[in-house]
């Protein structure tokens, strides 16, 4: 039976919060108990795809991530922990993969398109143009003197490219720009986001995985297109140069809903997060500010735990018997929101206490922390160099 080789990474964008723990870290902790290779890396090159102008924070963010990972219990004896940029072979394989990856694969990547359109509001522009292009596309298809196997598919493809072309022409100044002013978008914004690195980051992800012959990639559903693209690149390389890479499988991870103190999804950008590095006092203060059932004005009003963000977090930190008691007492107005929050804050602090102890140890021993990741990079490089020797040989590169 083929050994399972797990590859996963995380961009250094700041401190980790409870959402990161339950969405990613908890799954890594489970996987580290299994046999097989586990390569877990800090994706500092990937951080540059959208934040290349903010590198002044990069080193500090890397160290924060190292601290968070070790504090959470990621064991360097069970995982190979390293920083992506310290294994240069990732970049070499990325370059070689970029030579064989069709541009259309990247442009049709739904994650790339969604990010680009959301960041620049291009969806609104493109929708307008796609509607206008519909009649033109039908006329073009009618005039084509070739056999058309799938007219609907052809229509969609032409409509897509025509709308994209008109959008580009708008930014290039080929047509009137009032629409850009209306949406508060400028040409500079397009070029600051729409870089080669932004388009090609899934190719770098493929290199990250395949450099270690990774065959298992833990991801959420939104990352499935990237794993599929990695499989496509592996297939194409194998077809061109001979069997070299496995086609990795996505390991779908269960991600529970982790709400922030304002009831929305916990996120750094919403300023509603409880961080893994928060002190006991900070956690207590944040939980104390949490929104609850808006219809429960007084302690004597019956509550609705099923819609209360505080109760949602209780499900992650409170034992089943206490959880049941809180639910029943809330519905009967036998427990107030203040007391409910106090119980939650205490349970979160109990959960975070071992992490705080490990964090305090390594925070004062920065050199030991960096040594762990340098040693991990050394081990990762050994495996990566083996792969690159094989790749160069098969591609006839001296």
TrEMBL record:
Any GO BP annotation: tryptophanyl-tRNA aminoacylation
Signal sequence, start to end: none
UniProt short sequence motif 'HIGH' region, positions renumbered to this chain: 12-20
Residues that hold ATP according to the record: 11-13, 19-20, 220-222, 258, 265-269
Record family assignment: Belongs to the class-I aminoacyl-tRNA synthetase family.
Subunit-structure text: Homodimer.
Protein name stated in the entry: Tryptophan--tRNA ligase
Organism: Aquifex aeolicus
């Amino acid at each position: 039976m083929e050994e399972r080789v797990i590859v996963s990474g995380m961009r250094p964008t700041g401190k980790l919060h409870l959402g990161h723990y339950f969405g990613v870290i908890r799954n890594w902790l489970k996987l580290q108990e299994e046999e097989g290779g586990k390569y877990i890396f800090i994706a500092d090159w990937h951080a540059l795809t959208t934040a290349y102008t903010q590198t002044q924070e990069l080193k500090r963010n890397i160290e924060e991530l190292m601290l968070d990972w070790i504090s959470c219990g990621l064991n360097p004896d069970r995982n190979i922990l390293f920083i992506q940029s310290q294994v240069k072979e990732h970049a070499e394989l990325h370059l070689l993969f970029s030579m064989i990856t069709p541009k259309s694969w990247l442009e049709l990547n739904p994650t790339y398109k969604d990010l680009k359109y959301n960041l620049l509001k291009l969806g609104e522009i493109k929708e307008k143009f796609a509607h206008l292009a519909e009649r033109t596309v039908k006329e073009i298809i009618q005039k084509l003197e070739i056999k058309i196997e799938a007219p609907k598919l052809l229509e969609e493809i032409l409509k897509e490219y025509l709308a994209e072309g008109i959008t580009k022409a708008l930014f290039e100044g080929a047509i009137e720009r009032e629409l850009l002013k209306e949406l508060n978008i400028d040409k500079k914004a397009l070029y600051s986001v729409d870089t080669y690195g932004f388009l090609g980051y899934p190719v770098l992800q493929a290199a990250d995985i395949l450099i270690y012959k990774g065959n298992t990639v833990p991801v959420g559903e939104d990352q499935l297109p990237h794993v599929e693209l990695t499989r496509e690149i592996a297939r194409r390389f194998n077809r061109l140069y001979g069997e070299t890479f496995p086609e990795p499988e996505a390991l779908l991870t269960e991600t529970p809903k982790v709400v922030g103190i304002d009831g929305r999804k916990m996120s750094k950008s919403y300023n509603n997060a409880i961080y893994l590095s928060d002190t006991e006092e900070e956690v207590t203060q944040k939980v104390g500010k949490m929104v609850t059932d808006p219809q429960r004005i007084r302690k004597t009003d019956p509550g609705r735990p099923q819609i209360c963000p505080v109760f949602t977090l209780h499900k992650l930190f409170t034992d089943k018997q206490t959880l049941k008691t809180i639910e029943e007492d809330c519905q009967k107005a036998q427990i107030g929101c203040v007391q409910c929050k106090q119980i939650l804050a205490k349970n979160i602090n109990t959960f975070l206490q071992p992490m705080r102890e490990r964090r305090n140890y390594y925070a004062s021993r920065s050199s030991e922390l960096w040594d762990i990741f340098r040693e991990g990079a050394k081990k990762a490089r050994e495996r990566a160099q083996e792969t690159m020797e094989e790749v160069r040989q098969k591609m006839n590169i001296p």
